[in-house]
Structure formats: C-alpha cells, structure tokens
Amino acid sequence: MTTMPFEARRFQSTAAYYLRYRIPYPDTLIARVAERGGLKAGDHVLDLGSGPGQLGIAFARLQGATVTAMDPEPEMLAAAEAGAKAAGVGIAVHQGSSYDLGPEIGKLHLCIMGRSFHWMDRPATLAALDQLIEPGGAVVLFHDKTILATPDWRGIVEKLAETFSPERHEERLLRKGKAWAPHETMLLASPFRNLERIGIVREYQRDIEDIVGRVFSMSSTSPQALGDKLADFEAALRTELLEVAPDGKITEIVEANGLLAFRD
Hints:
Shape: globular
Distance between the termini: 24 Å
C-alpha cells in the first residue's frame, strides 16, 4: 500500500483559489448526508483536512452542527474563520493534521473529509477516528468526479503539469497506480466497513478564468509548486485552453458524492 508523504504546508498559496474557483458541494448533498448520518443540531462534526472550511461551514449553516475545522495550513484556517463569520456561524479551528488526532478533539458524531483522505496514513487515521467517533457516527468522504468536460481541459493540465511541475505530477500518478489502494478498500479493512454512497449530478458552465483558478488550487499546479515557472505555465495553459475553446466556454457534468462509512 502506498502512503503519500506528509507535507504540512502543501497547500500554502491556494486558499483564495479554493474559495473562488472550486465548485462547492451542493446543499442537497450536505442535507442528505446529514440525514443519513443521523446528525442532530449541536452534534460535533470534525472537518478533517478542512482547507478553507467550505464543508464544515455548510454543516454548521445548514444542519446546526458544532464544527471543528482541522488543517495544517494557517492560511486555510484563517479563510475558514472568515468564511464562517461571513456565513453567520461559529466554528472552532484547530491547526494540525490526521497525525494529531487525539482525545483533545473531543467525541465526534461525524468526521467529514473533502478530498483530503488521500494525503493521510489512511489505516492510522481510521484507527484514531475509531477512538473518537461515537456509536452510530460515521466517517464521510466527499468527492467530486467529472463525468464529462467539453472540451477536455484536464488532459491539457495533465500534460503541462508533467512539464512544469514534474515532481508533483509524479506524486499524482502514484495515486493512479496499481500500488494505490482505493479508499473503499481501506474502509472495508477498518471498523468503518459498512459503506453507502450518496451522489448528486449537475451540469456547470465554466469559463477559462474558472479553469485557471481551479488549476491553481491544486497541489501539483499551485503557485507554490510552480515557483518561478508560474507565468510560463499560465501562459501555456491559457493558450491551449483557447485553442480548444475559442469562445472561452467549457461545460462540465460533475457528480458530487459523499461516501458514508459506518461501523457494523
């Protein structure tokens, strides 16, 4: 089994791009996950690897949960605090990672993760969460999957990342290789082996600015990862996007889903 190397400040320089350009998880999905997870107002939810806290804020805003946002990146936690204030909800922030899970977090009903589980030592994280999540609670992995992008902008980014950010690109390829066990395999080998998935499919109209911003929110092509190659990468990306989308418009069909993992 492959485990990604821990790098506390991997997402430094990406918070603003996350907030503006990442497609948020639909409120309908949050509501259905909360209902299936038996979440009640005031229940404790840990948003682990929270980034700027969109998921945790949504659970606090829509479901009245008591939320802790936990992330190793101070820039992300500052954005989470600002976002919570703007949404009119209170959340607690805790600087740390899955390697810092301990009793000081308190008992949890749900631990939610939005595309962060792959950065962790997954078996160790699930073992630690087994000590924190109360009976009847669950781990929930949120994910979004592009079903179709017209035109296919991701192929362009993959090629440019290989050229401009080769080390980060190699890390990304690790998660696509045979040595990488799917999250479902990890969960089925853990106490949280009773799995269910809830998905919402929607169509989005995007433009080139949206795509460039989203690419900069990714660890392999963040401003930090690209360094002094940033300007050349952006110029090449914009040129290639305009070649395949002369009108600057891109259509995406995206499935946002939550994988709920309960104990037996």
